[in-house]
Amino acid sequence: QWYQRRVAVGTFSAVGATECTKCSAGPFSNAGASVCQPCSPGTYSASVGATRCTPCAAGNAAASPGSTSCTECPAGTYGLYGGTECTPCSPGQFSSSRAAPTCTPCAAGTISPSPSATKCTQCPTGSFSGNGASSCSPCAPGTFSGTVGAGQCSPCPAGTAAADGGSSQCGECLAGTFSTPGATSCTPCQAGTFSGTSGAGACTPCPAGTASNKPGVSQCEQCGTNTYSSVGSSTCTSCPNGKISAPGSQTCK
User: Fold this and answer.
1) Burial, 30: exposed, middle or buried (Cβ in 10 Å; 0-12, 13-18, 19+)?
2) Does residue 12 carry a pLDDT above 50?
3) pTM surpassing 0.90?
């Protein structure tokens, strides 16, 4: 009397075989199999007699069928769970170590312009970048960045200006001019006002007894004999008939 015994999982038997043979590492089998099946790409079996294949862990990949192990993704790439290949990091991202499950966006002030970056590089002075950037942007006119790796540009302080984009510093306004924060140019002081030093954030009214009749002056001129002026005057006024004044007077007597 004879009988058949069902082939166990992880083994196979050919026609006429008297015993079952374990599948080698790489393939697997179900119960009753006559041949072992190779593991699909993205999975592996590391031991003989496997009953199933194991998906590759994130950060690893198996491109070929029948794999006995998964390969770590190199730096600059990443791998998904059960992946068949490693994917290059996109511009603006990086992975610095092997077996990365994801790529990391570049921090503000740094960039990666090409795929497969293993690190991000700092933006030079006069430029900036936001998170995940693939290129640095020049600072707009009226702003600057004085250090490498800037995440944003700063407005020019009062008394300075930057006419062009991409400035690493703002130029100081000359005497006779002024500027407010974020200026692209320095503005001449109006008639009746002055700025006596460079880097002025505002102009000062001419003191009483002086005047400036044109814009952009660094000092006001003293009123002459028998003339006078009040604060912020653009011209000196002659004394009325019968009145006199010394030079630099604010009234006549």
Assistant:
1) middle
2) no
3) no
- Residues 20, 17: Cα–Cα separation, whole Å: 7
Q: CA end-to-end span of the chain, whole Å?
A: 147
Measured distance CA(144)–CA(217) in Å, rounded: 28
Residue 158 identity (one-letter amino acid): A
Phi, psi of 245 (to 5 degrees): -155, 150
**Residue linked to tokens 């994130």:** 58
CB-CB neighbours of 119 under 10 Å: 12
Residues 156-195 as b or e (16 or more Cβ within 10 Å = b): bbbbbbbeebbbbebbbbbbbbbbeebbbebebbbbbbbb
- The string of pLDDT tens digits covering residues 131-163 is 999 999 999 999 999 999 999 999 999 999 999
Strand partners for 250? none
CA distances, 228 to each of 206, 224, 240 (Å): 12, 8, 10
CA distance 102 to 122: 22
- What are the residues whose beta carbons fall under 8 Å from the beta carbon of 28, sequence distance 6 or more? 10, 36, 37, 39, 45, 50, 51, 52, 53
Q: Virtual CA dihedral for 242, 243, 247, 248, nearest 10 degrees?
A: -150
Distance CA 33, CA 42 (A): 23
Give the helix/strand (H/E) hosting 177.
strand 177-178
